[in-house]
Amino acid sequence: MKYLCSLVLLTFAVVVGPVADAADSDVVKPTVGSLPVGRVLYLGNSITLHRPAPKIGWTGNWGMAASAAEKDYVHLLTADIAKASGSQPEIKVRNLASFEREYDTFEIETGLEEELKFKADLVVVAIGENVTAPASDAAKAAFAAAFGQLLATLQQAGDPVIFVRSSFWPSPVKDGIMRQVSSDAGATFVDISALGNDESYQASAEQDFQHAGVAAHPGDKGMQAIADAIFAAMKVKAGLAGK
């Protein structure tokens, strides 16, 4: 499915939380189990963050198409992290649709300069929907190389723990590549492929969006399921499975 490709997705970022020096090593960082969670970076597309786009019926400034900011997966997951750690993490949220569409030419170090300076403790990578499914072996290798470079560059900026979410609209080829590259890089892959095949997780089941692309995005139920899946993976990584 290519619903995201029909939308105008701009590159932008949001920072929420206490202002702190990313190089300050004297601060005791909050943790969830063994995972440091003081600074959390979210890299995604419109599901993660989309500016208001009235022409397509979207007026929010959060993850499309949650009914409110606090209902998108970023805010839900951040709330889970805050509750588990006892401290509100500083977060940075970036729409990275430009990488999805131009991964073969995207300059990661300059294009993500501010995000790399943030030196996150934990990174959630939630992309793939805007990537054209590679058909040839060369195209598959190119996407794998670019995605691998993205993860490697993130790891070089403070060695964060990385979680990679599969596409909401499942794509065996793209998701398979991201799964393998994540494994090779030591990142945790979170498979949410079952969600996209269930229309009850889409916004169309909850709200009356006229634009098909917006309506196909996860609604509140879908956003909650995404947050739950990622947080469950975090607990496993943190040694808190079943707690």
UniProtKB/TrEMBL annotation:
The keyword Chloroplast does not apply. Keywords: Signal. GO terms for molecular function: hydrolase activity, acting on ester bonds. CDD domains: SGNH_hydrolase (cd00229). It comes from the Bacteria. The keyword Signal applies. Residues 1-22 form the signal peptide. This is SGNH hydrolase-type esterase domain-containing protein. It comes from Rosistilla carotiformis.
